[in-house]
C-alpha cells in the first residue's frame, strides 16, 4: 500500500460514523458514571482528586465498550483495579526521575506483553501506562497516592454498579454475534441462487462460537433464545453449498435449478427472521410464503439423487429452526444443576492459566508481541526523558502519545498515529478556544469534560480521528478543573503529540516486526489444516461405521482458525511498506482462492457423509491415505519455495475414477474438485517468486 493511499484510507476510516453502531443509552450510562465520580470528589474532596478519580471511571468505561464476551461489570472492575495498581506504583517511583524512568520502562514492557492475551487486555494495559504518566504529575504524598489509587478503583466500581443497576440489552454482544452468524448464512443462501460456488466468510460463525462459550453461572442465566441456533446454522451451511453446487447438487439449468433457487431463497428468509428476533429479543415471525416453499411439492419431487437428499436435509434443518423459535424468549435454564450442553469458558482462576500460557507462547524474540513490548518500553522511557528535557512543560505527552499509538502491527500503528495527531490537534484547539474565551469555573469544566466523555462513548466504535478529538478535548477540560493553564496545555500537547507520533513511527522503522515475510508460513499452515479436514471427511466416507463426528468437527475448526490467521496476516501485510520476495500479491490472491475452494469442496463431501450402515469405500480410504502423505510434503514445499507435486494424488484419483465407471458418486466427484483446486494452488505458487507489477 502506498503512503498516499494509506493516508486517504486513514482519513476516511477515522472520520466515518456508522449510525447502526451507535448505542446512545450505553454511552449515556458510561458518561453518568464519570459524572458521578467527578461530582462527588469535586464536592467532597478537591479538584486534584476529581481529576485523578475521573481517569478510573473514564478508562473503566472504555474497557466496557470493547468487543469481549466477558461480563461488562467484570471488565470495568478489572480495568479499574489495574489502573489503581499502576497509579500507586508510579507514585512510589515519581520522586526521582531515574527511578521513575526505570519503573516506566519495566511496567511498559510487562503491559506490552498483555497483547499476547488478547486485544482487550492489550488496550487496558495501554491505558494503565497512560494513567501512570498523567496522574503522577499531580502532587501528593504516599497516603495521597493510596487515596488516588483508591479513587481510581472506585471509578470502576461505580461503572460496574451502573451496568448492574441499569442494564441495557442484557446479553447484547452474544445476541449480536449469533444474529450476525445467522444473517451471514442467510446472505450466503441468497448469493448461491446466482453464484453456485459463491465464497463464504466463516468469521461470523467463529465469533458466534466464541460468544457461546460460558461459565457455569452464565449458562444458568442464558436465555433459551440463544441456545441451539448456532449449531443449526453450522449444519445448514454445508447443505446449502451441496444443494447449489452444479457438480454434486442441482443441475446447472432447468427445473432442478429453479427448485434449488426457491429453497435457497426461502431458507434465507427464515434465517433472516430468526436473526432479527434474536437481535431484538422478540418472538420470531415466520413468513408463511417461505414456509410453504420449504415443503415437498404436492406434484412430486423436482430434485433427484444427491440434490434431493440435500433438499430433504435442508427442509429438516429449517424445520428444527422453526421448532426452536417456538421457545419462550426470556425463559431461563433450570436452577441448580449445571447444564453441560454449552462451550465452557475459563473461570477467573482458569483465565490466569490461559494468560500465563499465552505469555509463555509469545516470549520469544521472533514474536511480534515481544518485539512490540520492547519497542514500546524503549520509546516510553526515551520519550519521557526527551519530553522532560524540552522547555515546553507537560513532557509526559510525548510518551503518552507513543504508548497510545504503538500496536504490535505496523498498519494499526501508522493509521492510529496519523489519526491521533489529527484528532488530538482538533480536540485540543477547540477545547482551548473554549477555555480561553469563557474561562469556565471548575464545575463548568467538569460538565464539559463529561460531555466529551459521552461523545467519545457514543462514537467510540466509529472513526478513530473523531474519538481522538473527544479524548483531547476531555483532557483539556479535565485539567482545567485543577486550574491548568490552557495556553500551555494546548501548545505542549500539539508539539509533544507530534513528537510522540514521530517517535512511535521511528521506533517501528528502527525495530520492525514485519509480518509480510510470514505469508508463506501461514499459507502452509492453512494448507495443512485443510488437508487434515479433508482427510477426516474422506475417512468417514471410507469407513462409515467407524466415523467420529467430533474428529471432523475439530478438523473443521482448525481449518477455520488457519484461514482466519492467514487472512489477518495478509490484510496486515498489505499495509506494510515492504514486499515478499517469494510471494507476489497476485500469487497470494490466487493461492487464497485455491485453498478456499479446497475448504468448500471438503464441506460438500461433509454434507454427504454416508450413514453408519452404508458399505465402506476402499477407494476413499486410499485417497485419504494419499492425501495424508502428500499434504505435509506440499506444506514443506510452500515454506521452502519449491514446486508442489500432486501427481501421486492424481494417480490414486484416476484409479478411483476407473473403478467408479459411468456412475461416479459424490465421493469421487468431490475428490476430482479437490485435486483440481490443489493443482490451481500449485500453479499459483509456480510463478510466485516473480516480482509483482501491481
From TrEMBL:
Domain called Integral membrane bound transporter: residue spans = 384-506
Which membrane topology describes this protein? Answer: Multi-pass membrane protein
Cellular compartments annotated: Cell membrane
Q: Where are the transmembrane segments?
A: 74-94, 100-117, 149-168, 417-437, 443-459, 464-486, 492-514
Q: Which Pfam families would you find in this protein's record? A: FUSC_2
Keyword annotations? Cell membrane, Membrane, Transmembrane, Transmembrane helix
Family matches, as InterPro entries:
Memb_transporter_dom (IPR049453)
- Keyword Translocase in record: no
Family, per entry: Belongs to the YccS/YhfK family.
Q: Give the protein's recorded name.
A: FUSC family protein
Amino acid at each position: 500500500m502506498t503512503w498516499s493511499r494509506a493516508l486517504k484510507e486513514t482519513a476516511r476510516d477515522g472520520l466515518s460514523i456508522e449510525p447502526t453502531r451507535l448505542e446512545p443509552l450505553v454511552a449515556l450510562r458510561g458518561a453518568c458514571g464519570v459524572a458521578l465520580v467527578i461530582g462527588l470528589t469535586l464536592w467532597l474532596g478537591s479538584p486534584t482528586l476529581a481529576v485523578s478519580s475521573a481517569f478510573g471511571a473514564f478508562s473503566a468505561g472504555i474497557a466496557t465498550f470493547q468487543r469481549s464476551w466477558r461480563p461488562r461489570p467484570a471488565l470495568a472492575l478489572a480495568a479499574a483495579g489495574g489502573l489503581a495498581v499502576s497509579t500507586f506504583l508510579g507514585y512510589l517511583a515519581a520522586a526521582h526521575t531515574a527511578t521513575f524512568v526505570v519503573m516506566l520502562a519495566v511496567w511498559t514492557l510487562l503491559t506490552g506483553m498483555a497483547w499476547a492475551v488478547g486485544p482487550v487486555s492489550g488496550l487496558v494495559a495501554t491505558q494503565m501506562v497512560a494513567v501512570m504518566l498523567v496522574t503522577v504529575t499531580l502532587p501528593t504524598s504516599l497516603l495521597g497516592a493510596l487515596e488516588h489509587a483508591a479513587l481510581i478503583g472506585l471509578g470502576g466500581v461505580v461503572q460496574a454498579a451502573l451496568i448492574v443497576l441499569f442494564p441495557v440489552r442484557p446479553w447484547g454482544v452474544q445476541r449480536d454475534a449469533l444474529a450476525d452468524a445467522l444473517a451471514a448464512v442467510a446472505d450466503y443462501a441468497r448469493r448461491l441462487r446466482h453464484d453456485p460456488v459463491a465464497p463464504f466468510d466463516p468469521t461470523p460463525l467463529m465469533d458466534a462460537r466464541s460468544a457461546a462459550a460460558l461459565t457455569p453461572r452464565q449458562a444458568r442465566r442464558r436465555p433459551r433464545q440463544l441456545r441451539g441456533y448456532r449449531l443449526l446454522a453450522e449444519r445448514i451451511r454445508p447443505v446449502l453449498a451441496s444443494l447449489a453446487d452444479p457438480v454434486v447438487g442441482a443441475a446447472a439449468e432447468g427445473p432442478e435449478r429453479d427448485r434449488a433457487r426457491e429453497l435457497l431463497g426461502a431458507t434465507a428468509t427464515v434465517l433472516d427472521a430468526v436473526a432479527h428476533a434474536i437481535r431484538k429479543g422478540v418472538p420470531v415471525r415466520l413468513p408463511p410464503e417461505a414456509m410453504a416453499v420449504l415443503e415437498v411439492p404436492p406434484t412430486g419431487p423436482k430434485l433427484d439423487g444427491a440434490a434431493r437428499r440435500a433438499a430433504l436435509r435442508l427442509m429438516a434443518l429449517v424445520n428444527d429452526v422453526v421448532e426452536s423459535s417456538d421457545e419462550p424468549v426470556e425463559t431461563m435454564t433450570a436452577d441448580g444443576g449445571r447444564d453441560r450442553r454449552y462451550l465452557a469458558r475459563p473461570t477467573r482462576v482458569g483465565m490466569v492459566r490461559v494468560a500465563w500460557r499465552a505469555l509463555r507462547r509469545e516470549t520469544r524474540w521472533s514474536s511480534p508481541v515481544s518485539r512490540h513490548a520492547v519497542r514500546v518500553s524503549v520509546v516510553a522511557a526515551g520519550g519521557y526523558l526527551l519530553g522532560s528535557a524540552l522547555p515546553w512543560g507537560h513532557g509526559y505527552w510525548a510518551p503518552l502519545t507513543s504508548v497510545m499509538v504503538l500496536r504490535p502491527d505496523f498498519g494499526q500503528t501508522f493509521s492510529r498515529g496519523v489519526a491521533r495527531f489529527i484528532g488530538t490537534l482538533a480536540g485540543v484547539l477547540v477545547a482551548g478556544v473554549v477555555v480561553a474565551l469563557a474561562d469556565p469555573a471548575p464545575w463548568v469544566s467538569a460538565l464539559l469534560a463529561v460531555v466529551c466523555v459521552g461523545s467519545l462513548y457514543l462514537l467510540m466504535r466509529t472513526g478513530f480521528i473523531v474519538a481522538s478529538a473527544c479524548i483531547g478535548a476531555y483532557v483539556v477540560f479535565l485539567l482545567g478543573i485543577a486550574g491548568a493553564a490552557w495556553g500551555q496545555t494546548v501548545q505542549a500537547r500539539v508539539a509533544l503529540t507530534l513528537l510522540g507520533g514521530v517517535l512511535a513511527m521511528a521506533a517501528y522503522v528502527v525495530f520492525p516486526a514485519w509480518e509480510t515475510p510470514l505469508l508463506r508460513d501461514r499459507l502452509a499452515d492453512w494448507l495443512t489444516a485443510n488437508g487434515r479436514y479433508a482427510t477426516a471427511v474422506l475417512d468417514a466416507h471410507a469407513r462409515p461405521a467407524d466415523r467420529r463426528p467430533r474428529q471432523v468437527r475439530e478438523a473443521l475448526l482448525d481449518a477455520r482458525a488457519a484461514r482466519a490467521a492467514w487472512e489477518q496476516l495478509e490484510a496486515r501485510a498489505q499495509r506494510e511498506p515492504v514486499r515478499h520476495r517469494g510471494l507476489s500479491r497476485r500469487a497470494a490472491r490466487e493461492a487464497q482462492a485455491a485453498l478456499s475452494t479446497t475448504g468448500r469442496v471438503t464441506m460438500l463431501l461433509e454434507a454427504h457423509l454416508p450413514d453408519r450402515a452404508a458399505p465402506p469405500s476402499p477407494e476413499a480410504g486410499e485417497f485419504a491415505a494419499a492425501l495424508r502423505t502428500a499434504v505435509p510434503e506440499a506444506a514443506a514445499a510452500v515454506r521452502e519455495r519449491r514446486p508442489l507435486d500432486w501427481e501421486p494424488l492424481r494417480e490414486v484419483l484416476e484409479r478411483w475414477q476407473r473403478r467408479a465407471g459411468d456412475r461416479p458418486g459424490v465421493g469421487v466427484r468431490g475428490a476430482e474438485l479437490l485435486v483440481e483446486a490443489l493443482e490451481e494452488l500449485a500453479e499459483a505458487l509456480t510463478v510466485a517468486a516473480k516480482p509483482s507489477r501491481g
